[in-house]
Design goal:
- With 239 residues, this protein is of the alpha/beta class.
- It has one domain: 3-Layer(aba) Sandwich (Rossmann fold), CATH 3.40.50.
- The protein is built from 6 helices and 10 strands; from the N terminus they run βββαβααβαββαβββα.
- Helix content is 35%, strand content 27%.
- Strands 1-2-4-3-5-6-7-8 form an 8-stranded mixed beta sheet, sandwiched between helices.
């Protein structure tokens, strides 16, 4: 196994974005592509590590950036402002996600007909929006994602499958939000499933999360179980 990476710059208008593509160079043929959408922090070593993990499993994975290349490594306040602006303008977020997906599909390592997306926290919300858009994806996986639905996408039947991996005690996605999410997915005709982990809060996949007051706490068992579930889901999509 020989996992390789390269930075890919892509843009639209005055905005320049930067993503990290990871793939196993031992395989010559195009393979399924997986978009990796970032947390509030923007593209970081966390998402890049997930892209490399996916490459080791036989995928080509692109850790994307929706804030803009100049914002990578920004301050906490800057990242929050960037996220809040896109949550308030879901159409713009969706445009940036769609551009990122198209960029991944253009890479020679990627089989453009076989693509999926995974995302964490804000990235979980992001990949769910791709599913809502009927983007050319086989499925999406949301890890401790935010469930609030956009108001710019009509309810319609959809072929993109959804897996939501959720901490039941997540203060950012309450049980009421979970019920609303399930009702929304059903109304959209999406093939959806949700795994809820008990005694588990937000950001449970991030070993650096340890803010009990904010409800962002790493949970090793939920981290392990959710990754197994995601791998099984991706395998079901493409095998």
């Amino acid at each position: 196994m020989s996992v390789k990476t390269r930075l890919i710059e892509y843009g639209e208008g005055n905005l320049l974005f930067s993503g990290l593509l990871a793939w196993d160079d031992d395989f010559a043929d195009p393979r399924p592509g997986v978009l990796v959408a970032h947390t509030i922090r923007g593209r970081s070593p966390f998402e890049e590590g997930k892209a490399k993990d996916l490459a080791a499993l036989g995928y080509a994975a692109l850790a994307i950036d929706v804030y803009g290349a100049s914002q990578i490594g920004g301050s906490v306040d800057q990242n929050k402002a960037n996220m809040d602006a896109l949550r308030a303008n879901r159409a713009e977020l969706q445009n940036r996600l769609t551009l990122s997906l198209a960029t991944m599909q253009q890479q020679p390592e990627v089989d453009a007909a076989k693509c999926a997306a995974i995302g964490f926290c804000f990235g979980g919300l992001s990949v769910l929006d791709l599913a809502r858009l009927s983007a050319p994806l086989s499925g999406v996986v949301s890890f401790h994602g935010l469930f609030d639905a956009p108001d710019n996408i009509q309810t319609d039947r959809n072929e993109c499958k959804v897996l939501a991996l959720h901490g039941w005690d997540d203060p950012l996605a309450t049980p009421e939000a979970v019920v609303a999410f399930g009702e929304e997915m059903t109304a959209r005709g999406i093939d959806w499933q949700l795994h809820a982990y008990g005694h588990t809060q937000h950001a449970f996949t991030n070993p650096a999360a340890n803010d009990i007051a904010r409800g962002t706490v790493y949970h090793a068992a939920a981290d392990r179980r959710s990754w197994v579930a995601a791998k099984n889901f991706l395998s079901e999509l493409f095998d």
